[in-house]
Every structure is written in C-alpha cells, then in structure tokens.
Amino acid sequence: MSQGNPLLRPAILGDLVLPNRVVMAPTTRCRGSVPSDLHALHYARRASAGLIIAEGTLISPQDVPFPNVPGLFTTAQVAGWRRVTDLVHSLGGRIFVQLWHAGTRPLPSSEVTSTIADYRTAAANALRAGFDGVEIAANGTYLIAQFLNPRLNHRTDAYGELPRLLLDILDAVHSTGARVGVRLSPYWSPTDSAPPCPDYFPDEETLSHYDDLVRRLDSPAYLHLRGPASFDLDAFSRYRKLFDGFLIANNGFSPDTASAAVESDLADAVSFARHFIANPDLVTRFALTQELAVADKAHNYTGGPIGYI
Ligand SMILES: Cc1cc2nc3c(=O)[nH]c(=O)nc-3n(C[C@H](O)[C@H](O)[C@H](O)COP(=O)(O)O)c2cc1C
C-alpha cells in the first residue's frame, strides 16, 4: 500500500476531523475494573488511530459479566479514564468509549427506566472523564440486542416494540450533550466478542427489523456495523443504502479489503480489533506497507502487560 491508500485519507466525523480512517474497535481485555497506567499505555500507544473506541465499559455495578472489566460508575473509574483520555489527547488522538450492559440476568420491566438512567449517568461520566463521545453497544447477544433481534428476543413483552429500548437509550444519552455512535449487527453468535465464532446468518425477518431500525436512527455520530463472520463486503452495501451518515465497517478486514471498502465507498472507515491488539502502530504499518504481527489470543483476557501493551 502506498500514500494513495484510502484508509490514510482524513475524514470528517461530525465536528471532528479524523486524520485517517483506521479505527480501533472496542476490545475487552480484562485489565482491571478501574483504568490504570496499564490502560493509559495501551491506548496511548494506539493514539495514531483515526479514532479509538475504548473497550466495552460497564454502566452499572448491577451487571458485571466477568471480573476486571472497567466501568464508568465510580469516581475512581472516572479519574482513571481521565488519565487515559488526557494522554491520548496530548498525543493528538481521539477516543470514544463503548457503553456496555451485558444483560446477564433478566431485566424486569420495572428496572428498564433505571437502566436507561444508568446509561445517561454513564454518558455524563464519560464526558467528565474526557471522552470525545460514547458508542452504544447494541451488537452481540447483550442486553440491547436481546430486545432488538427477533431470534434473541425474549424481552419484547417487557418493553414495547423491538427497537424501543435502544431508541430510548439513545435519547437519554444524547441529552447529556455527548456525541453518540451506535454499534449494531444483525449477525450475532454466542461468542460474538472473540472471533473466530460460528457464523449466524439472519433470516429475512431479522434483516428487515434491522433495516427498519437503521432507518429510524436519528443521526447518530456514526453507525458501527459488524458484518458476518464469513467476510462479505456486500453485507455492508445494504446499510450504506439505508444510512447516509458515517459508516464504520468491521469484522475480518485485511489491509486490502479495508482499502477496497473505503475506495468503493461502502464505508467511511474500517475498524480493527485483532490487528490493533498485535500492532499498536497499525497506521504506520499501513503507510509503509509493512507486514502485520499476529495477536496471541492466549493473552486476550489474562491481565497484566504481556500481550496487552
Ligand atoms: C479480545 C477481544 C475483545 C473484544 N471485546 C469487544 C468489546 O468489548 N465490545 C465489542 O463490541 N466487541 C468486542 N470484540 C469484537 C471486536 O470489536 C471485533 O468486532 C471483532 O474482533 C472483529 O474484528 P477484527 O476482525 O478486526 O478482529 C472483541 C474482540 C476481541 C478479539
């Protein structure tokens, strides 16, 4: 790849200028429930990304899917994240945070209102912590997707029509003044967060629910779309037609397929998870057409600096 690489062209994301279209996808790494200097090192080393989307971050102590996942609900967490964002900004970067509710236990309808309030508080805390915006995780098999996806849906009886919960959360989070991106995927699997995962291909009913939802999104900062596990550029063109805002494509992109997606205008930017784990200098490697290192997934969730920094 050369300097003509479309991934290295600047992009306009609302009122932000991204110096390139290489986005760091959210990656849970279980390095502590309060962000530390280890997190600061991890993100600062990746500050040359056009945009960093920090790992899935819990909105409430009521829903902790596993240990050592950071949150945005205590003063110490806000202070820890502030050190991370200050460092990324001082190095010229931009950083959003993914707000996450795993939905590990049933959510009675009486708790829906307080869950929406938790999203609003977490978004306000994200602004206090210096983030440039938040991403709402509506992908995977997590709480919001449990309301969205007919195949996962055992929740609608508790809370109206399928997209209602996500739309209400977006309204609540917007009210804080935060820039808000949405991460979606009609393609889910039980192990969505850590590929390779079994392919799940949505039926037409599911796809049409997602079409409807995407049409109803009220100008989010971006739509972050995770495509099918078996890589397929065409899957993105469907959403390109439905959504005229900033589209970030993800899942299984190589440097060449990512360039092709941007060059053919299927997406404005491409996000990378595994390549950023192994290559903090991913943008530089793209610019110099250098080979990419391969991540050792044994260190995905082990804690400590090895395989992380
Ligand atoms: C270790 C690891 C942790 C992940 N954590 C998250 C997460 O917190 N939130 C999320 O939406 N996706 C998460 N993912 C999924 C990635 O963001 C991405 O969708 C997936 O890895 C496919 O992109 P890639 O081919 O560039 O790796 C994770 C993936 C990995 C490998």
The structural class is alpha/beta
The number of helical segments is 10
The SSE order reads: EEEHEHEHEHHEHEHEHEHH
Low-confidence stretches: none
Radius of gyration: 18 Å
Instruction: Please estimate the helix content.
Output: 25-40%
By CATH, the superfamily comes out as Aldolase class I
Largest sheet: 8 strands, parallel, barrel
Q: Strand-residue fraction?
A: 5-15%
CATH topology category name: TIM Barrel
How many distinct domains? 1
Tell me, what's the shape? globular
Ions and ligands: flavin mononucleotide
Total strand segments? 10
Please describe what this structure looks like.
By secondary structure, the chain is an alpha/beta fold. It has a single domain, classed as TIM Barrel (Alpha-Beta Barrel), CATH 3.20.20.70. It is built from ten helices and ten strands. The chain has helices at residues 37-44, 75-90, 112-128, 143-148, 164-174, 204-216, 234-242, 255-263, 274-278, 282-288, and strands at 11-13, 16-18, 22-24, 51-58, 95-100, 133-137, 180-184, 222-226, 247-250, 269-272. It has an eight-stranded parallel barrel, surrounded by five helices. Strands 1-2 form a two-stranded antiparallel sheet. Helix 6 (204-216) links the parallel strand 7 and strand 8. The longest helix is centred in the middle third of the chain and has 17 residues, at 112-128. The chain is globular. Bound molecules: flavin mononucleotide.
